[in-house]
C-alpha cells in the first residue's frame, strides 16, 4: 500500500507543533515567528515557509479551562484551513478521541464516553463554545473522526503519545489508508472488552505497566497506584525504576526489578515527535530519537512549543534530532528580554556615574583621541579600519568609555564593548568576548600610563 504521507522533493522541513488546546493566539504567534505567513497562501508571487515546509500538529487541539483565553472555534477553523490548503497535517490526540466518545452513542443510546462530572469538567469549555449537541458540535466531531492516528513521513513519524511498532502493526487492520479509524470500529474504540481500546490508549495516552506484586506508589493526589506511566522512549531501560514516570518523592518506591517481557522497551528505527506529556522548562529531547512538543502551552504563562525538522534528501545521511531545533511562541521576545535587561542594567550603571562636564572633556582631550583611535583600529567590530572618512564611526561610545576608565571599571568596560557590538550594532563575530577583554585591558593600561597632570 502506498504511503499517502511521503513528502515531495521540493520540501525542506517540517514544523511539528505541540498541544494547542484552543490557544489560537499562541499558534498564530508561533506560525508568524517561523515565517509561515497566512496571506502568502493565496499570493503566488510571494513565497513563505508554507511553500517549502509543512506544519504538523500532534493532536489535542481542544479542551482547556476557563480563564486561559482559549478559542476552540477559531483554533479548529485555523488548523482545518491550513490542512485544506495542503500545507498542514494533524494527528488525533486523546482529547479529540474523548470528544468523539462524548458525542457518539452505543446501541443502547448511551454515550460511548461516560458523562461523569470529571469528564464533563475536562470538556466543558469546548461544549460551551460550540454548543453541546449543536450542528457545529456534530460538524467538528465528524472532522475529528477523519484525523489519522499516526503519520509516517518516511524519515520521521508523528503520533500523539507513544510509538511502538507492535502497537502500530496491531492498529493497521482497523485503519483506513490515511491511518484514520474505519467508521465501523468507533464503537469498539470505547469497548473495554475489545483490543482496539487498549491499542488506542497506548498510542494516544502512553503505555501503563503494572508493578510487580507488593509494590505501589502514591500519585500527586495521594492516591495509591500499582500501574506506572512508562518512559517508552528509554531504549536502554531494563527495570521498572528506569521507565517509571512518578512524582520525585515516589521514585524510591519503584523497584530495580527487570521489566516483564510484555513491558520491554522496543527500539525505534526512526525519530518520533509526540505531544501529550505536559513537560516544563527549556525544551529538550526525551531521547536521541524522541522529541516531545507539549510544554503546557494551554496555560497563559507557557509558550506553545514546536520542533523544526530539516528533511534530508541524501538517504545515506544519518537522521538525528537536535535540541537546537526546538522553537516556541514569543521565543524572540523571550530572548530579547534578557538582552534588554542587561542593557538596562548597564545603562542604569552608566547613568549613576558622575557626568563629565565640558571643562573635564577639554582636560582629557588627548585621552579622548587615544580612545577614539583604539576603538577604531583595535576594537572595530564593524570593520571600518583606518578609513579617514570613518573617524567618527564610534564617536557615541567614546565618552562612556572615558567614564568607565575614570572609575577604574575595567571589567564593566569589557562588557560594555561586548554589549555595544552585539546588542546595539547587531554584530556577531568569533572570539568577541576575548577581543573586548583585550581592548579593555589595552585602554586601561594606556589610561594608567597617561593620566593628565
TrEMBL record:
Pfam families: Metallophos. GO terms for molecular function: phosphatase activity. It comes from the Bacteria. InterPro entries: Ap4A_hydrolase, Calcineurin-like_PHP, Metallo-depent_PP-like. Residues 14-152 form the Calcineurin-like phosphoesterase domain. One of its GO terms (cellular component) is cytoplasm. This is Metallophosphoesterase.
Amino acid at each position: 500500500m502506498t504511503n499517502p504521507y511521503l513528502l515531495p522533493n521540493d520540501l525542506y522541513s517540517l514544523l511539528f507543533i505541540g498541544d494547542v488546546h484552543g490557544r489560537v493566539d499562541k499558534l498564530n504567534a508561533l506560525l508568524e515567528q517561523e515565517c509561515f505567513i497566512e496571506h502568502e497562501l493565496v499570493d503566488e508571487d510571494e513565497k513563505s515557509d508554507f511553500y517549502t515546509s509543512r506544519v504538523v500538529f500532534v493532536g489535542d487541539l481542544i479542551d482547556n479551562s476557563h480563564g486561559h483565553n482559549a478559542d476552540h472555534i477559531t483554533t479548529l477553523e485555523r488548523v482545518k484551513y491550513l490542512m485544506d490548503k495542503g500545507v498542514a497535517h494533524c494527528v488525533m490526540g486523546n482529547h479529540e478521541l474523548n470528544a468523539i466518545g462524548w458525542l457518539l452513542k452505543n446501541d443502547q443510546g448511551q454515550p460511548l464516553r461516560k458523562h461523569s462530572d470529571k469528564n464533563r469538567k475536562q470538556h466543558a469549555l469546548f461544549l460551551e463554545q460550540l454548543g453541546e449537541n449543536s450542528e457545529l458540535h456534530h460538524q467538528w466531531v465528524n472532522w475529528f473522526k477523519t484525523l489519522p492516528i499516526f503519520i509516517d513521513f518516511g524519515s520521521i513519524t508523528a503520533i500523539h503519545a507513544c510509538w511502538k511498532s507492535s502497537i502500530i502493526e496491531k492498529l493497521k487492520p482497523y485503519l483506513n489508508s490515511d491511518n484514520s479509524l474505519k467508521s465501523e470500529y468507533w464503537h469498539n474504540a470505547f469497548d473495554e472488552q475489545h483490543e482496539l481500546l487498549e491499542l488506542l490508549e497506548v498510542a494516544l495516552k502512553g503505555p501503563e505497566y503494572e508493578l510487580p506484586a507488593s509494590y505501589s506508589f502514591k500519585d500527586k493526589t495521594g492516591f495509591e497506584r500499582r500501574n506506572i506511566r512508562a518512559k517508552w522512549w528509554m531504549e536502554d531501560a531494563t527495570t521498572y525504576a528506569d521507565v517509571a514516570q512518578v512524582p520525585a518523592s515516589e521514585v524510591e518506591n519503584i523497584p530495580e526489578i527487570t521489566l516483564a517481557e510484555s513491558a520491554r522497551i522496543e527500539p525505534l528505527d526512526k525519530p518520533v515527535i509526540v505531544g501529550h506529556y505536559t513537560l516544563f522548562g527549556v525544551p529538550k529531547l526525551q531521547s536521541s530519537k524522541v522529541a516531545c512538543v507539549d510544554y503546557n502551552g494551554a496555560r497563559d504563562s507557557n509558550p506553545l512549543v514546536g520542533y523544526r525538522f530539516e528533511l534530508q534528501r541524501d538517504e545515506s545521511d544519518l537522521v538525528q534530532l537536535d535540541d537546537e531545533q526546538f522553537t516556541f511562541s514569543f521565543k524572540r521576545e523571550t530572548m530579547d528580554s534578557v538582552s534588554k535587561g542587561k542593557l538596562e542594567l548597564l545603562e542604569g550603571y552608566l547613568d549613576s556615574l558622575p557626568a563629565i562636564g565640558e571643562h573635564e572633556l577639554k582636560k582629557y582631550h588627548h585621552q579622548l583621541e587615544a580612545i577614539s583611535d583604539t576603538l577604531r583600529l583595535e576594537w572595530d567590530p564593524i570593520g571600518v579600519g583606518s578609513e579617514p572618512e570613518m573617524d567618527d564611526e564610534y564617536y557615541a561610545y567614546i565618552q562612556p568609555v572615558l567614564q568607565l576608565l575614570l572609575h577604574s571599571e575595567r571589567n564593566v568596560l569589557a562588557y560594555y564593548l561586548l554589549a555595544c557590538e552585539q546588542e546595539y550594532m547587531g554584530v556577531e563575530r568569533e572570539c568577541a568576548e576575548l577581543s573586548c577583554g583585550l581592548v579593555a585591558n589595552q585602554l586601561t593600561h594606556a589610561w594608567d600610563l597617561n593620566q593628565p597632570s
